[in-house]
Amino acid sequence: MKVKRVISASSSRFSAQLFNICSVAAITAGISALLLGKLLASQKIGFLPLVLSFPPLMIWLAFSIFVYASIAHHPNERTRHFHRWAGYRFYGATGAMVVFGQPIYELLGGWSGLMAVWVLVFLVVVPWGLYDIWKAAGETWQDMSIEVDIHE
After folding, report:
1. Which residue(s) pair with 7 in the sheet?
2. 72 lies in which domain range?
């Protein structure tokens, strides 16, 4: 039996923006925690900035897989487009952080290296993410009617 369902325009828009919103929040929280850790850390606990900066990123990295999978097959093509590019940016930046983070950290040394890695990730994810959030908000979204099979 097929049933008609309506996906509202606001739901499609929010789905298009969700991954970007959470990615921007996680990266911003990570950098904020890094700076807070640097302010609070003494010489004896110099690892504190590192310990504080990664949990927001790691929590969002784990949760983002579920968010990405839930929106990846959205019926609205524009929603999938915004979502796909948000995923490319976030996963690409965090993957590059893993690959290039250690060499940059060793090259610049200590605090400067750690900050450089975070700034690079910030510059890739946050400005483009905010731009996509703004761009998705400015688009004209339409309600969609879809047919769903219901098994009794």
Report:
1. 144
2. 2-149
For residue 148, the cross-strand partners are 3
Question: 19 vs 78, 145, 152, CA distance in Å?
Answer: 14, 24, 34
Contacts of 84 (CB under 8 A, 6+ apart): 72
Report residue 10 CA to chain centroid gap. Answer: 20
Amino acid letter for position 47: F
Sole residue written with tokens 């990730």: 121
Q: In terms of C-beta density within 10 A (0-12 exposed, 13-18 middle, 19 or more buried), how is residue 20 classed?
A: buried
Contact 113, 104 (CB under 8 A): yes
> What are the mean pLDDT values of the chain's consecutive 10-residue runs (152 residues total)?
88 94 94 81 64 83 93 91 94 90 80 83 95 95 87 71
Question: Which residue has 């994810």 as its token pair?
Answer: 125
Number of domains in the chain: 1
The secondary structure of the chain in percent helix, strand, coil, rounded to multiples of 5, reads: 80, 10, 15
What pTM value is reported for the model? 0.85
CB neighbours of residue 149 within 10 Å: 7
